[in-house]
Structure prediction request, 205 residues.
Amino acid sequence: MSSNAEWVIAVANSVLAVTIVVFGLQLRNDVKHIKADHERSRREKAIDLLEMYATKVHENSPGLRFSTKLLSQLNENNYKAIWNCDPFEVEEKHKYLIIGALECDINKLNLKIEFGRIFLRRRELLVIRSQLVGYLNVLEVVATAWKHNVADREIIEDEFDRLIIQQDGLRKFCDAGVFGQPSFRELYGSILERKKRSNGKPKVA
Prediction:
């Protein structure tokens, strides 16, 4: 083989090597851009979900706020009764929560009260259940996006950390229901576990 031929082959090999390197760098750069776009998209989705959540909660306030507070005063049998709209009674001291949940004028509200007990009838329970189920459905949408990594998981966990953990009654009400809201329960468990790990870390002096 002549020296010219060897030189041509060497140059060709060098060009090929450089091309491969350039292609590899370009591919890596493209992957970084795609990953960055996906991460930005997930962050934007998380913000959209937070906006949707705030809007839905505002639309159902103040009744929803009182309904969730009422849950913290009830037991498992009461949760099941709400799901089924089966009448039950509560202590009269919870009257303000019931009035708030039903969003009624106290003078127009015809509650049945006897011997310090309030009897919640089907018509009242239908209103309370509707608020709570609607709220759980909103949380399930957010949690499903978190579960499947459609929205930024860290943003969702940070924003719903205090909100969800403080609503243990809502989680128990969810467990007593027929729908289950699996994504919400998984998000609740994840945030609770993260809280435990955080509390277990030694404090920095």
Notes: The chain has a mean pLDDT of 81. The first strand starts at residue 88 and ends at 91.
